[in-house]
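User: For my dataset I need records formatted as: sequence, then structure tokens, nothing else. Please produce one.
Assistant:
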Amino acid sequence: MMQKEMIFHRPINEYAYGYDRDTLHIMLQVKHDDVEAVELIFGDPYNFTEKTWNYEVKPMMKTGETTTVDYFKVAVEPPNHRMRYGFRVTGVNGEVIFYLERGIFTEPSTEIGDYFCVPYLHAVDNFNAPDWVKDTVWYQIFPERFRNGDDTITPAQAKDWGEGVITPRSFYGGDLQGVLDGLDYLVDLGITGLYFTPIFKAKSNHKYDTTDYFEIDPHFGDKETFKKLVDTCHARGIRVMLDAVFNHSGYEFAPFQDVLTHQQDSKYKDWFHIHAFPIVETPRPNYETFGFVSRMPKLNTTNKEVEDYLLRVSRYWIEAFDIDGWRLDVANEVDHRFWRRFREEVKAVKPDVYILGEIWHDSMKWLQGDQFDAVMNYPLVDSLLDFLVTQEIDKRGFIDRLTQLLHMYPQNVTEHLFNMLASHDTARLITQAGDNRAIAKLMYLFQFSYPGSPCIYYGDEIGMVGGEEPASRACMVWEEEEQDTALRNYLKTLIQLRKTEAGFSSQSNFSFVENDSALLIYQKDASHAIYTFMINPTAQSLPLEDTPAGETLLSTASGDALAGFGYHVVKTTK
């Protein structure tokens, strides 16, 4: 008998959503290897002939399977933008049931109220992220360490570029003029989006302790330089995204300094979460902070004055400088109401601005069309590392993880996720990969062929190494003789393929291919071709069996053998 208790659907989130104005995506989850076929029964809830409901039937496609569950999906155009629906489920043993909102039936119910319901597909309710993001290749810049372009604003305590031991308080003098000076390099690499960690006035080198949200840090430059940078980037086809730290401010933020001075008599005391007066910083602060960092007091975003202040900040940098996106630091610790207001405000100024939240876990609550356009896809890199480096999971475990991830969000959400392999918050990619550049190349290949928007952390493309921060925040190496130019050229190739081949974009369907070898095989099904990716996750050479005919795009194969940690990519025209 079918395990009916394993069948699951709800008409919300990733299980039922508007992909566009006219199309609904519907997903059903069932026990692995328990179901032979699923069909969607659907129709207009008002379309009756006498007392008989007129419905259609459409087969659903199995889009993924794990060791525990299988997923079936279908795209359908609801008649008149409204729909009642249910599922006809056929088990592997031939049993047939009808899975509806009000239970499981042996025959199609004649009561329309028994069926799942989409009352009306409103375009305004759909998830709607900027279309340009899907084709963007990002490059993350930590401004203090990318390039020094103006010695006159370098901090007095700065070390010589790249010299000495990096500490949490080291300064080296990177600035915005340095980024302008490095644009030719980035254009040559193929970059079309720059993500900057904070550039606003702050005491630290990382600037996540904002002192003034309306000012550029003087060690980075001024507003005139930043305007020139944004305009130059736009002229060269590059988008610009800034980092907003709205969960907390810096210790020197004027309102917090006022609280320190006037304590409970400060007019800003409700701007923060203060538990008692006088304020105590050690051994732990008696006010809420980022972590337990006393120099990063948490902002009370439910306070109307705080809300209005931060929303002014959000609008200002778009209106005055035409930035293209906001990356939101510690986004999951700020209330949803604030983020809804934030979206309304920034989208009113620039409808196609990109809103990216820093969230490291399941983020469906923020990705329903009323808050963020995407989150940083840390589960992707964690799974790649667990599979290829630490080997905490085998091939089956990796497929299970990625299949679950591919079905965690609606497809239009997945297409806009921010896919990075390293950042200022992690060790560098080569170091994470155990100093194995072949493994790093496999991770890049997967990143650039996976749905979403890929990002490279500055310097990773030339093989820079470094453990957790501050080691991962070293000065960019500009001397070509000290760069891994082979790795950089490999990244240039992937970026070019991303721009020219549908199989390296979000505009093709991703699926794993079951096989009995150790090879990890997956395909991207595009409109005019199928792209087959064959990855060797072992250090040993493996035979290439049943290789599809077509054009080889990338390969480390020699004859019929695939080198250890090698790859083979074939494009087969339909």
